[in-house]
Amino acid sequence: MAKPRVGLFITCLADQFFPQVGECVVNILRELDVDVTFNPEQTCCGQPAFNTGYRDEARSVARKVLDLYDDTDYVVAPSGSCTSMIRVFYPELFEHDPELLRKAQELGKRFFEFSEFLVNVLKVEDVGARFPHRITYHDSCHLLRELGVEQPPRQLLRKVRDLELVEMDDFKLCCGFGGTFAVKFPEVSVPMGQDKIRAATSTGAEYLVAADGGCLMHLAGLVHRQGLPLKTMHLAELLAQR
Amino acid sequence: METVVQIGSIHERGSETVADPRLAEAYRSSTVRLYTHRLQALTEVPGFERLRETARAVKRHTIENLDFYLAQFADNVERHGAHVHWASSAEEVCRIAVEVVKKSAAREVVKAKSMVGEEVELNHAIEAAGVRPVETDLGEFIIQLAGERPAHIVAPAIHKTREDVSKLFADHLKSERTTVPEELTAIARRALREMFQKAGVGVSGANFAVAETGSVVTIENEGNIRMCTTVPRVHIALIGIEKLVPRLADLAVFLRLLGRSGTGQKLTTYTSVLTGPRRPGEDGPEEMHVIMVDNGRVKALADPKMREMLYCIRCGACLNTCPVYRKIGGHAYGGVYSGPIGALVTPEYIGLSAARELPFASSLCGACRDVCPVKINIPDLLLHLRHEAQTQAPQPGAGALPEPLMFRLWAWAMRHPALYTHGSTLARWGQRLVARAGWIRKIPFYPASQWTAGRDFPALAPTSFHERWKQMQRSQKGKGQSERVKSKER
């Protein structure tokens, strides 16, 4: 089989706030003999506008994404939210334009979140990582419920040497980020995040790990404001540890 | 009389609930209990998923052919000797019901729990006619004494502790103070027993309305619905038009789902199938009236996307699982229906401009869709309402820029990579004023100020991934691709 060509969709949050996540994804994929490219024209998938009800604005941004990956076999993003946006919601956005709908559906077929790409497409669970710490994993909502990706992150984590993975109570409970929900309803978003942090801390974990930057920004922001010892980490960063 | 929904207070009331340890604990413990019972209950039913699929299919078929089934239902109701009335608005429902009550010369009306009754504020109308309405469901009885609206679709007094109830009963019924649940229930029972005997009219809702037989189906644990619908001489049933199912046999699917989804029960204590008033030699009301209620449902029905919300069988499972409902409680939603389904039906029934914030009061986590017995795609419908809100009832400006303009500017920047890049470079410079060791404690303008009120905000990384990729490409000119990328900065 020829080397698969993967275009990286970095996501606007990782691009601006956690670029090291992108570096980790590139390194891990290259070590698995994947040809990774990055189209510098990319900016955002359009979800912030879509979730807030501004479909025309979302569509104008999404339209650009449709043309970014004609020269790759797959597209991989370190985010369940962005992947859901392309796979699940782009068809809704473009439902009235047959040509763009076709493009969106075709792109959706080969667009994957990072952990599901490793496990379900490359059929790899052991990426050679080592991380001698106790961690707990938070299922981000889009990844879990829109994409149905629950096992792949755990399959990958179980192969990390010297790692202790402990499940927290309510690991499927929303962390409270919810995109614009975090700024529209902070009086609910913050307590929801605090519940999640409490659950994580109760496991004795040093690290709270998730596959989505939005959740991590929200939880890390809470941890830092409260001066708690819990550390947060993106799944891709953990998998790049040696 | 329009139902007054105080949506503006969703933030205020939500914050109150979060900040009140007793209320917060009441909501937390009750919803966790109901949610846990549901989980246990569905392990008993092999093929629970298929049951949900079937239930959804039946509801979909019924709603898509509602005109047919309503006509069939009405024919059968009349065939069995009951009266059918059609009410398009809350006022209509009240007018028709009060007319029946007046004709019956009843001085008291006993009421079984009916969310539709709450929706149209029937009690006010009955009182205005000089007749006394008495809620007989224990939870409704409690909130009637407290002068409150239901806080949950299935458990209206979910937010009340036994201490709250003890005080309420002592104040209004002059009963002994006690916090023993059995004793509190006995106090209510004594007060209500007499009412069932005295009342000239009993009002109920309906959990299901069977088109094939013209039957009204009610489910309950207390037995008060049985009393309300069989003891008084006249029975009025308020039925939202979406309650229809085609055949008696369809109940087999819904009855297996409803109890388990809502409270974890295999079946509620009583399930009643009422077909017409009493026949010679039977117990039951002499006169039966069925009021079919629109009040915004036809509007939802007309919308091919939104009509899915009419599949709802009012089990309450979505409330019990919703992390937002658990925090803000039922009253925060402002209307009669709360939780995820409330965020849909309230704006749909009474209009978005009156209930604009509700579709946004969700993190779109999707837990509700996972537990809905008829698999309503609640997050998707919420997203559609959000879109409708932005096109029909634009957000008043909360910050320096109105929100629609903000997003138009945002989209413009996102469509132009050069703008996006320059914008982020500018932001990187700007944040030097406020960022300390990679974190920002306070951003003074909306909407970012809403973030930093309760959390720190991460500073933008020193270089973006775009920039790092460019560096990688430069340093890799001539080298093999397996070079490990090592960035000099964090």
Gyration radius of chain B (Cα, Å) is: 27 Å
Count of beta strands of chain B: 13
CATH topology group of the largest domain in chain B = Rossmann fold
Estimate percent helicity of chain A: 40-55%
Brief rundown of the structure:
The complex is a heterodimer of chains A (242) and B (490). With 242 residues, chain A is α/β, with parallel strands linked by helices.
Describe this structure in words.
Chain A has two domains: 5-121; 134-239, Rossmann fold (3-Layer(aba) Sandwich), CATH 3.40.50. In chain A, the strands form two sheets. A four-stranded parallel β-sheet of chain A has the order 2-1-3-4, sandwiched between helices. Chain A has a four-stranded parallel β-sheet with strand order 6-5-7-8, sandwiched between helices. With 242 residues, chain A is of the alpha/beta class. Chain A is built from 13 helices and eight strands. The longest helix of chain B has 22 residues, at 21-42. Chain B is elongated. In chain B, strand 5 (208-210) and strand 6 (215-220) form a beta hairpin. Classes of the chains: A alpha/beta (242), B alpha/beta (490). At the A-B interface, helix 1, helix 2, helix 3, helix 4 and helix 8 of A face helix 1, helix 15, helix 17, helix 18 and helix 19 of B.
Strand-helix topology:
The complex is a heterodimer of chains A (242) and B (490).
Chain A lengths: L4 E4 L3 H6 L1 H13 L3 E3 L9 H5 L3 H11 L8 E4 L2 H14 L4 H12 L1 E3 H8 L12 E4 L3 H6 L4 H8 L5 E2 L15 H4 L1 H17 L4 E4 L2 H14 L4 E4 H5 L3
Parallel strand pairs in A: 1-2, 1-3, 3-4, 5-6, 5-7, 7-8
Helix pairs in contact in A: 5-6, 7-9, 11-12
Chain B lengths: L9 H10 L1 H22 L5 H17 L1 H14 L3 E5 L2 H15 L3 E4 L3 H5 L2 H7 L3 E4 L2 H9 L15 H12 L7 H18 L2 E4 L3 E3 L4 E6 L3 H7 L3 E7 L3 E2 L5 H12 L7 E5 L12 E7 L3 H6 L14 H5 L1 H6 L10 H12 L16 H5 L6 H15 L10 H13 L1 H14 L4 E2 L2 E2 L7 H5 L4 E2 L6 H11 L15
Helix pairs in contact in B: 3-12, 9-10, 16-18, 19-20
